[in-house]
Design a protein that fits this description.
This protein has 315 residues and is of the alpha/beta class. It folds into two domains: 45-255, Rossmann fold, CATH 3.40.50; 271-314, no CATH class. It is built from 14 helices and seven strands. A seven-stranded parallel β-sheet has the order 3-2-4-1-5-6-7, sandwiched between helices. The longest helix is centred in the last third of the chain and has 27 residues, at 257-283. The chain binds guanosine-5'-diphosphate and magnesium ion (MG). The site of guanosine-5'-diphosphate has 16 residues, from helix 4.
Length: 315
């Protein structure tokens, strides 16, 4: 697979068109994508990944733009993966991404890509890990994973990111109190964005109170999730947020949780891969004759499933 090796070398050289091509390869699972993925993974190392979750409209994309500029100011290369429930060529989310792409157009230290969830209801696209590894191999030093803020993807981003920001707005004051337990647990840093609007102090106070109650209920990991106010519109609070993200990363390193999280991410990646591969190969064996036998109740879905799995093992 010479072209694959060549593509891998170009990715490692930081060539953005190669990065784009490699991500398409991996995400679309084209022939050669597995060779590409393993080649890139073995020759790269893990990068700090920051996940952005929170309701649609809370300002995640705008904040992403601010964080890109903040890290670019420190000379860091920044890659962004935006999970998009629609196809990458239609829908509002992509329009927003396009605006941001133009902001950083021509900057070889920034790469922004939206990934369709391919009809999955919520949840991260299973191939997001492959896309992350491409960015790692290309030498990006910060990776942002922006979620849509609908359904499962909010919780699942915790399987792909080291530091999860949960973004709300002052207008969501009442909803903050009703934040689902799962969200309280995945947020490493809570951000009250749109601090230029009214009600930010109350929102920050409400959120702090809710988090304090939650912290009593769940065992401490040595990190009390802070609440910060930002305005992605004016830039207020962005530097403080950037510093807090670094502080969380230092905490992950010094507490040993960085490798724990990395292992959890890799476990999720391997199990998603296995689930895809096994179901595909087993489903291939499911014939019309099997289905008829089920209809006639000569067998049952569990027994048939077991037989198909065993037949696969023997093959
Ligand atoms: N007033 C104000 N508007 C903001 C701020 N951040 C984002 N917005 C606006 O809120 C809307 C939604 O922002 P977007 O970043 O697309 O939110 P997302 O859906 O969470 O990604 C856009 O019209 C933004 O211009 C902010 O800090 N203050
Ligand atoms: Mg967005």
């Amino acid at each position: 697979m010479n072209d694959v090796r060549q593509l891998a070398r170009r990715v490692e050289g930081g060539d953005l068109s190669a990065v784009a091509r490699a991500i398409s390869f991996v995400v679309d699972e084209r022939p050669g994508s597995e060779e590409l993925a393993s080649e890139l993974y073995r020759r790269s190392s893990s990068v700090h990944k920051v996940g952005l979750a929170g309701p649609p409209g809370s300002g995640k994309s705008t904040l992403t733009g601010r964080l890109i500029s903040y890290w670019r100011g420190q000379g860091l290369k920044v890659g962004v993966l935006a999970v998009d429930p629609s196809s990458p060529v239609s829908g509002g989310a992509f329009l927003g991404d396009r605006l941001r792409i133009q902001d950083h157009a021509g900057d070889p230290g920034v790469y922004i890509r939206s990934l369709a969830t391919r009809g999955r209801v919520g949840g991260l696209t299973p191939t997001i890990f492959g896309a992350i590894h491409v960015l790692e191999a290309a030498g990006f030093q910060k990776i942002i994973v922006e979620t849509v803020g609908i359904g499962q993807d909010e919780v699942e981003v915790a399987h792909a990111a080291d530091t999860v920001l949960y973004v709300v707005t002052p207008g969501l004051g009442d909803e903050i109190q009703a934040l689902k337990a799962g969200i309280m647990e995945i947020g490493d840093i809570f951000v009250v964005n749109k601090a230029d609007l009214q009600g930010k102090d109350k929102a920050v106070a409400d959120l702090r109170r809710a988090l304090a109650i939650g912290a009593e209920a769940s065992p401490a990991d040595g990190w009390a999730a802070p609440v910060l106010a930002t305005s992605a519109l004016t830039g207020e609070g962005i530097a403080a947020l950037g510093e807090m993200i670094e502080r969380h990363r230092d905490h992950l390193d010094s507490s040993g949780q960085r490798s724990r999280r990395l292992k959890d991410q890799l476990r999720a990646e391997v199990s998603l891969y296995l689930a895809r591969r096994i179901s595909r190969s087993v489903e291939k064996r499911l014939t019309e004759r099997h289905l008829s036998a089920l209809v006639e109740r000569k067998t049952d879905p569990v027994t048939l499933g077991q037989e198909l799995l065993e037949a696969r093992g023997a093959a």
